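User: Second chain of the day. Same drill as before.
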Amino acid sequence: MAHETFDAGEARYELVVSVDARRSGQYNDAEKPRMRQRIYRVLESALAQAGVVRDAVHMEDRGDGVLMSVPGRIAVSRLLGLWMVEVHENLREENGSLLVPLGLRVAMHVGPVRHDSRGISGRAVDLTCRLADSSVARELLDRERADLVLAVSDSLYADVVQAGGKFIDPARFAPARLALKEGAVTAWFHLPGRPAPDTGALGPEEPGDGGVAGTGGVPAGVSAGAGGAAGAGGAVVSPADPSPGAVDGGDPDSEGHEDDEDGDASVRYAAQGDLSVHQHNVYQQPVHIGRVTGAGPRKD
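Assistant: Same format as last time:
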């Protein structure tokens, strides 16, 4: 690898890229090696097509994905622009012969990165992985039946994307607030080859679970677990059944764990209009449920 040998205490500002496969836990042991081969073929071919020397890029295997860091001498705009175009085209070509298409969640952020003999670390790495694993990235990929979703940090959007450039159109990115374990952050999401996604229609989750709080800080829908409720304008969470009451079948998290399909934590409903969903609630006093309109007395 052409990376310089860094002191583990030194941090260099680099572009961090996290790539995760959609629903990797659903691949059996015989299918996973082929899935992994496709991921590397897509990414490495795109590097060559974008004119980025493979040996200049640090790549770590993550089992169901890849963690990359790109040194500052390579323009970030090349990875955001041409490389992402080539990744998308390569992925479409791979999926043309597959009954179950490979879906990828890609996230990018620029920040201080520390290298040692075992790989890379730092908050920039943590944030990038959180963005790729966020519920917004997962739900966009499913809801839009897309091959690829890109998430970029707010600072990367402001510094690079917003200025535009070759193959970079800021109008095709949409923001969302994410409640990550480290706190709430804004990220920007893009579906290559499509208009800006509607991130305001995605439902939130509890902070610390990679959830989203909507683009305006007001939840667009609520995960309906124990005591949960979904109000007007809620999001269709399950792409397979976009009707109210659809249940999300679960997806592996960043550590390879499947969501508990039988537990309340993984159950979400699509609440449209005035529909609200309530489960397992015990009310000790009068409770108002629904909208309040007009100047008349409220009915509890």
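Strands lie at 12-21, 58-61, 65-70, 104-116, 119-121, 148-153, 173-180, 183-190, 211-214.

User: Great, on to the next one.
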